[in-house]
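Researcher: Here's my situation. A collaborator sent me these components and asked whether they could plausibly form a single complex. I don't have experimental data yet, so a predicted model of the whole assembly would be a useful starting point for our discussion.
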Amino acid sequence: MATLIFPEHPSPVADAEALKKAFHGWGTNEKAIISILAHRNAVQRKLIRKAYEDMYAEDLVKRLESELSGDFEKAIYRWIMDPEDRDAVLLNVAIKHKPTPDYRVIVEFSTIYSPEELLAVKRAYQKRFKHSLEEDVARHTTGDLRKLLVAFASPYKYAGGEIDVKLAKSEADMLEDIVKEKALNHEEIIRIITTRSNAQIVATLNNYKDNNGTAITKHLKDDPANEYLAALLTAIRCINDPRKYYEKVLRNALNKSGTDEDALTRVIVTRAEKDLKDIKEVYYKRNSVALDHAIAKETSSHYKSFLLALLGKED
Amino acid sequence: MATLIFPEHPSPVADAEALKKAFHGWGTNEKAIISILAHRNAVQRKLIRKAYEDMYAEDLVKRLESELSGDFEKAIYRWIMDPEDRDAVLLNVAIKHKPTPDYRVIVEFSTIYSPEELLAVKRAYQKRFKHSLEEDVARHTTGDLRKLLVAFASPYKYAGGEIDVKLAKSEADMLEDIVKEKALNHEEIIRIITTRSNAQIVATLNNYKDNNGTAITKHLKDDPANEYLAALLTAIRCINDPRKYYEKVLRNALNKSGTDEDALTRVIVTRAEKDLKDIKEVYYKRNSVALDHAIAKETSSHYKSFLLALLGKED
């Protein structure tokens, strides 16, 4: 379930006017901006952008960028765009991340988004960057990591729930052999994880667990220096349980000395209209602390207010 | 340009009735079937199927299968289905081809179809076979051929016409080095050919030709035993000039002792509503024989009449 609280039929014209007023004069009224934008769903935000452009012949996104700054600006920017546009931008930033691409975002979107959602993001990516996503991923990566990430970014996966039990068994055996031989960059692992449907992969991983008494993740040693392996582990976590995965991203982002605002913003902004309520529950269960409290402790000012509003805090 | 000749507003009900009549009694009236179906476009054929089903509570496709036989039956079957369904079936047959998959169909569709057309076929494939195309390609291939074919079947390519001239130059140099080192299964070749937009690949290949005085195809030795290389060459031909490629498929199909009806039917049926007229022109230029005549010479009976009708022969 989502956390976003929004009225049913707000007036885009009134919202555009209120935003214009918030930009007016000395300083910006961030509180007013939050009280509107943090309580509108994606369609409503799109209508506000349109009304604002029509009424003031000015691009709302650009105006917000010039009015705001820091993590708050970044968060608002990620929130005000169309979701598929925003995700395309997040992917492009991840691909161009130095010194090496940030595989997390690529793996996260490729494995957790439905094939249709991912396709919408890929369309937006092409429109904006005049290249395909897979093309840019391939261009900016090398070696085993490239093989894996291109294979994640490319397919149009099957999203059906049917499971081939025999196949799950045979591919679990295949994975077992590969793990035994420590050939962890084996093309069959990549094939199974990147082309099979998520339901089929979960069946295969469960089979593996049943046969071995432990999950395959325990057999893939987490070595931060080995980005290929780290990406593979991330993918398995995402496929196995997206909410648990997001909880971990949030936990790491908040526990890091110096908070990882990019990761924090990404999860809140991309999940507020989807399953952030469930992620909050998983977070509480794991940390015995409410996600809102943890975020309030590690962030400040308008950025904090904005995230908490997206998390469902009533004004 | 297309070759198909069809009336603007035929009556699906009258067509369904005429087909029913053609099935009636002793023997089938193949001529009547051809006179209708070979002169209806994809939407019109769909409406006939629907009308027939509504009127006679019978699946027209199945009925046709039971009434007809041989190459004619196969051709009608490929023609009466929705194009994306037909292509999904053609791909599935190609993937399951023994002893090894028929890479031609996979490469042809992946490189010549627009990204949106290919996506429609992939959707139809999943609906029909409950697996993704890439999943099945990966499952039924091995080695370098697998790498190449999965990489063709997977991406959602960029279809825009923009060309990055600097990139074309640098990737042409890259290809040159790879050809010199005879490392023809190099991952960079696969990356360039399978992820770059067709316009970009053509620019790169032209660059290669300018630098080397010969096309890269001359440097990739055509070795029928090396299916990977054969598939790569097929792809380059498809991307460089689809019409020339189709001409060659037709020429080989017709010149073969024992005619390759599957290839012949595939090209006629998949291109009759697209660019078969242009392919005919290329064929005539290359062979000094009209395609219609060549086909008339190598085929017979209803199969012949049907193909010629699709090729634009007036009744």
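Model: Some features of this prediction you could bring to your collaborator: Chain B has four domains: 12-68, 83-153, 165-240, 242-310. Chain B touches chain A through 29 residues (CB under 8 Å).
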